[in-house]
């Protein structure tokens, strides 16, 4: 006699994860190699400033919001921050996730308690709802939104929701919900290199390039 | 075995008081998730139970289940419940052997056809009947033959309920569970490797008093398997606070913190271990400092490793990761070079146009 929920969980923990990991890592490395090899056209003009330092600085400085953004786009501003922070805290400080990182890389750190993890998860989900709502209602943003954007929103919110449901046993069989949670993460991993999700890695390069171009010209970025 | 004494007489000979018996009935009633008002009914039913004929078949098993039920903490009331049935065939416990033993089984089947309770421990090999036979009869044939006249079947232990250890990868004997073969009889699964003695006797008591208990999708009585270990674990507050033992011997382990990171399968395991406990309620594995193995669930032996946390992939994923880095880099280089070549070619093929050419062509 089998338990279909358990079988699905074991598939998600076994072959499913292997496939997702291969596509995730392979895809990221593929795109990064492309970006690095293609490089940029050589700037022949004499440098007026330090492009390298300015590039490094820009990687971090662009994480600080531009002045006036809160008034101009409050939902994007707040929702964006809350979602990213919530996602990172839930991902990096929930004990079962740390156990995975520890198994893969041999490093670990203290886990956060349930209250913190669940609060940030709930906030992150609310943030995605708000961000999606603003995309659907703001005419300019709506016309700028592509299928890819909606897909990315859905793929990044599903692991949060399924994880919350599995841990709290809100509905469904807990083993099944755990399997569904893993599958939702695997879907995210597979889509990652080929959608805008890739920004989580490529932002470093984009910001460096932008910063260093300006830096060479002697401008602040 | 037909003239075996009834429960009240057994209690007398074992020096068990009526008070102790009623106490036992009360705990059994609450264990079976029944209303306390039913205690007298349970007591009455047990005292006057018809002592149904029970045939116990042992197939591919380790006798751990029988050990568990008979050697728990004798002599107790649980033993008496066990003794209050007429155990007409159990080839480990019965005195008779060989043909005499088989004759006892056949006789019991004939005398109580359609009424006896069949208990099975161990899995059934399907690959080759010769892998496991009793008196020259294959397990499969004996199960089918004996099940035909049974009122109900209790699959005791994970082997009988879900295939258990014999069924573990690569399952060399093609082992299956009772419910994989018998489809037309009520089957109560009592998994565990082995099951808790009081759970086994509790299920028997329920069967004697109120018939077949309410079962979950995996055929387990809900009263005993309704909750997960994780939900009833006394270490749960540590899980919720994010406090984990990292090794079996660190400060966290000594402080009794959660064993999730040491591979605890409590979150996906349904059993009464955390509430009923073992050895007369003394302790249970997690209380003794060892993570739950998940032995009441199908395929628990193949869940990726007993000491691997539930959230860690079960396969050799690191190799896959390294291969992906190499593969991704190779494809990335190839595609970038292709793009560069395309760009160079485009530059080469680029025809410069000046105003004269434009004038000419217009
Ligand atoms: S379930 Fe466990 S204890 Fe029972 S027969 Fe199988 S291996 Fe032995
Ligand atoms: S020890 Fe196991 S069952 Fe207990 S709280 Fe931790 S993970 Fe859950």
From TrEMBL, chain A:
Task: Extract the InterPro entries matched here.
Answer: NarG-like_sf (IPR036197)
UniProt keyword annotations, A-Z: Membrane, Transmembrane, Transmembrane helix
The transmembrane segments are 20-38, 75-95, 115-136, 148-167, 187-209
Tell me the Gene3D superfamilies matching this sequence: Transmembrane di-heme cytochromes, Chain C
Task: Specify the superkingdom.
Answer: Bacteria
Q: What is the name of the protein in this document?
A: Nitrate reductase
Q: What species does this protein belong to?
A: Magnetovibrio blakemorei
Q: What is the lineage of its organism?
A: Bacteria, Pseudomonadati, Pseudomonadota, Alphaproteobacteria, Rhodospirillales
UniProtKB/TrEMBL annotation, chain B:
Look up the domain of life of the source: Bacteria
Q: Which InterPro entries does this chain map to?
A: Cytochrome-c3_hydrogenase_C, NADH_UbQ_OxRdtase-like_20kDa, NiFe-Hase_small_C_sf, NiFe_Hase_small_N_sf, NiFe_hydrogenase_ssu, TAT_signal, TAT_signal_bac_arc
Q: Which keywords annotate this record?
A: 3Fe-4S, 4Fe-4S, Cell membrane, Iron, Iron-sulfur, Membrane, Metal-binding, Oxidoreductase, Signal
Q: Name one GO molecular function term.
A: ferredoxin hydrogenase activity
Top EC class for this record: oxidoreductase
Reaction(s) this enzyme catalyzes, per UniProt: H2 + A = AH2
Keyword Iron-sulfur listed? The answer is yes
> Which Gene3D superfamilies does the annotation name?
Cytochrome-c3 hydrogenase, C-terminal domain (4.10.480.10), NADH:ubiquinone oxidoreductase-like, 20kDa subunit (3.40.50.700)
Ranges for the NADH:ubiquinone oxidoreductase-like 20kDa subunit domain? 62-206
Which Gene Ontology BP annotations are present? anaerobic respiration
Query: Which cofactors does this protein require?
Result: [4Fe-4S] cluster; [3Fe-4S] cluster
Gene Ontology CC entries for this record: [Ni-Fe] hydrogenase complex; cell envelope; ferredoxin hydrogenase complex; membrane
Positions of [3Fe-4S] cluster binding: 273, 292, 295
Q: Which residues form the Cytochrome-c3 hydrogenase C-terminal domain?
A: 225-304
Kindly report the protein's main subcellular placement as a broad class: other
Assembly, in brief, is: Heterodimer of a large and a small subunit.
The entry's protein name is: hydrogenase (acceptor)
- What is the scientific name of the source organism? Magnetovibrio blakemorei
């Amino acid at each position: 006699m089998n338990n279909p929920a358990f079988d699905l969980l074991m598939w998600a923990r076994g072959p499913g994860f292997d496939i997702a990991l291969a596509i995730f890592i392979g895809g990221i490395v593929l795109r990064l190699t492309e970006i690095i090899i293609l490089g940029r056209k050589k700037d022949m003009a004499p440098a007026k400033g330090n492009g390298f330092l300015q590039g490094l600085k820009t990687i971090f400085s662009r994480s600080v919001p531009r002045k006036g953004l809160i008034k101009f786009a409050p939902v994007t501003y707040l929702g964006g921050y809350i979602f990213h922070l919530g996602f990172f805290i839930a991902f990096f400080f929930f004990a079962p996730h740390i156990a995975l990182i520890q198994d893969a890389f041999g490093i670990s750190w203290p886990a956060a308690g349930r209250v913190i993890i669940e609060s940030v998860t709930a906030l992150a989900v609310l943030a995605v709802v708000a961000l999606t709502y603003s995309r659907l209602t703001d005419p300019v943003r709506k016309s700028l939104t592509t299928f890819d954007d909606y897909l990315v929103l859905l793929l990044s919110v599903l692991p949060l929701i399924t994880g919350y449901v599995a841990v709290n046993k809100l509905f469904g069989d807990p083993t099944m919900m755990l399997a569904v949670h893993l599958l939702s993460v695997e879907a995210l991993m597979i889509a990652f290199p080929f959608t805008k999700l890739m920004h989580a890695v490529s932002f470093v390069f984009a910001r460096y390039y932008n910063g260093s171009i300006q830096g060479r010209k002697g401008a602040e970025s | 075995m037909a003239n075996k004494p009834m429960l009240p007489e057994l209690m007398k000979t074992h020096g068990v008081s009526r008070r102790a018996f009623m106490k036992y009935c009360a705990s059994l009633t609450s264990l079976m998730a029944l209303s306390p008002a039913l205690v007298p009914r349970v007591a009455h039913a047990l005292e006057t139970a018809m002592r149904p004929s029970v045939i116990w078949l042992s197939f591919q098993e380790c006798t751990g289940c029988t050990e568990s039920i008979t050697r728990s903490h004798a002599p107790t009331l649980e033993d008496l419940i066990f003794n209050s049935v007429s155990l007409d065939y159990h080839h480990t416990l019965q005195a008779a052997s060989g043909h005499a033993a088989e004759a006892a089984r056949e006789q019991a089947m004939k005398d109580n056809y359609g009424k006896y309770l069949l208990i099975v421990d161990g899995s059934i090999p399907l690959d080759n009947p010769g892998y496991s036979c009793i008196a020259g009869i294959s397990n499969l044939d004996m199960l089918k033959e004996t099940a035909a006249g049974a009122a109900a079947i209790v699959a005791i232990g994970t082997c009988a309920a879900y295939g258990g250890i014999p069924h573990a990868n690569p399952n060399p004997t093609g082992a299956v569970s009772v419910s994989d073969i018998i489809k037309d009889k009520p089957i109560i699964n009592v998994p565990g490797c082995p099951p808790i003695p009081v759970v086994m006797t509790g299920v028997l008591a329920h069967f004697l008093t109120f018939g077949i208990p309410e079962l979950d999708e995996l055929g387990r009585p809900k009263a005993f398997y309704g909750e997960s270990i994780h939900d009833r674990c006394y270490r749960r507050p540590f899980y919720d606070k994010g406090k984990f033992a990292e090794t079996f011997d660190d400060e966290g382990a000594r402080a009794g913190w959660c064993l999730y990171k040491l591979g605890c399968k409590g979150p996906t395991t349904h059993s009464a271990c955390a509430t009923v406990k073992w050895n007369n309620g003394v302790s249970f594995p997690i209380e003794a400092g060892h993570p739950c193995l998940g032995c009441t669930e199908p395929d628990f032996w193949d869940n990726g490793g007993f000491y691997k946390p539930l959230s860690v992939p079960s396969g050799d994923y690191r190799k896959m990761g390294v291969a992906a880095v190499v593969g991704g880099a190779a494809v990335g280089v190839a595609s970038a070079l292709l793009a560069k070549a395309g760009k160079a070619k485009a530059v080469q093929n680029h025809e410069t146009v000046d105003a004269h050419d434009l004038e000419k062509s217009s």
